[in-house]
């Protein structure tokens, strides 16, 4: 029971971080129809930015979070201007390759500024590292704090789309870009906001993940793969699906690593993708739209 509770808490916490990465991917995909393959490197850069603000400059963790999110948003908007906007009328493959190129560029910048491939940086814990025992249940304060932060960001993200004018405009553009244009929505700005918002969510996930892991320039690819798996499992056009998919991937990964073998943690995401694509290709919470003629 002790091991199960620890694995479940670890899986839910990690899954919440995967869900945030997946949310960023889904936001961009819903608005533009493109997967941003630079999402993982945006995650990596934001983690290093937070480390620099919190460790090198000695500022508060909240300021590190805000600074990393702001930098992530700016980088996301820049990707729209550099890799998406000039290729708006080009083939989707060209846009995808452009985002891949941006990801390699960001990884190279990360290595130049924060160290080579073999360098790892540790982020100070934001709470006590001593576990709390409630009978047979193990609670780790660090994981609880990260999970609470991830939930708060998800709630704020949902409120943004549900109650703000910009959020509703982004949803309208995602549903029907031509109709949105006809009612006066400037979809070019919405595309920029989509890339910026997706990158900002990934940046927030990176700052929350930083105290639980080591920072290194290649870390973004692993989180991108898990976030992409979560988006596929939940549905590439479903925001709730991204959350469900992230939690599912995190729990399966933790249980597989704990009860089968640690190597299963790396392949569990791919197995989940394969199973979902075989059973429900559109994702668990994604549905085909039916229109009466």
From TrEMBL:
InterPro entries: ABC_transp_permease (IPR001851), BCAA_transport_permease (IPR052157). It is found in: Cell membrane. CDD domains: TM_PBP1_LivH_like (cd06582). The keyword Membrane applies. The chain crosses the membrane at residues 6-27, 34-55, 61-80, 92-114, 143-161, 190-216, 228-255, 267-287. Keywords: Amino-acid transport, Cell membrane, Membrane, Transmembrane, Transmembrane helix, Transport. It is a multi-pass membrane protein. Its main location: membrane. The keyword Disulfide bond does not apply. Pfam families: BPD_transp_2 (PF02653). It comes from the Bacteria. Belongs to the binding-protein-dependent transport system permease family. LivHM subfamily. This is Branched-chain amino acid transport system permease protein. It comes from Xanthobacter flavus. The lineage of its organism: Bacteria, Pseudomonadati, Pseudomonadota, Alphaproteobacteria, Hyphomicrobiales.
């Amino acid at each position: 029971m002790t091991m199960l509770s620890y694995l479940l808490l670890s899986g839910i916490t990690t899954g919440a971080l995967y869900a945030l990465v997946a949310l960023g991917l889904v936001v961009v995909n819903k608005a533009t129809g493109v997967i941003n393959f630079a999402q993982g490197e945006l995650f990596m850069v934001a983690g290093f930015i937070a480390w620099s603000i919190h460790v090198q400059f000695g500022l508060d963790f909240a300021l590190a979070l805000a600074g990393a999110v702001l930098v992530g948003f700016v980088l996301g908007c820049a990707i729209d201007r550099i890799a998406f906007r000039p290729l708006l009328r080009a083939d989707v493959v060209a846009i995808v390759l452009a985002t891949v190129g941006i990801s390699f560029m960001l990884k190279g910048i990360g290595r130049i500024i924060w160290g080579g491939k073999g360098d790892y940086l540790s982020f100070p814990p934001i709470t006590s590292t001593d576990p709390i025992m409630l009978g047979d249940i193990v609670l780790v304060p660090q994981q609880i704090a990260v999970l609470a932060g991830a939930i708060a960001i998800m709630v704020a993200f949902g409120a943004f789309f549900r109650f703000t004018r910009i959020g509703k405009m982004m949803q309208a553009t995602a549903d029907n870009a031509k109709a949105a244009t006809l009612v006066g929505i400037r979809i070019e700005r919405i595309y920029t906001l989509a890339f910026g918002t997706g990158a900002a969510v990934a940046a927030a996930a990176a700052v929350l993940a930083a105290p639980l892991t080591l920072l290194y320039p290649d870390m973004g690819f692993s989180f991108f793969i898990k976030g992409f798996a979560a988006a596929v499992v939940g549905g590439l056009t479903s925001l709730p699906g991204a959350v469900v998919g992230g939690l599912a991937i995190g729990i399966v990964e933790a249980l597989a690593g704990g009860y089968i073998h640690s190597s299963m943690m790396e392949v569990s995401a791919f197995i989940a993708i394969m199973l979902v694509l075989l059973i429900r290709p559109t994702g668990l919470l994604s549905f085909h739209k039916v229109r009466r003629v």
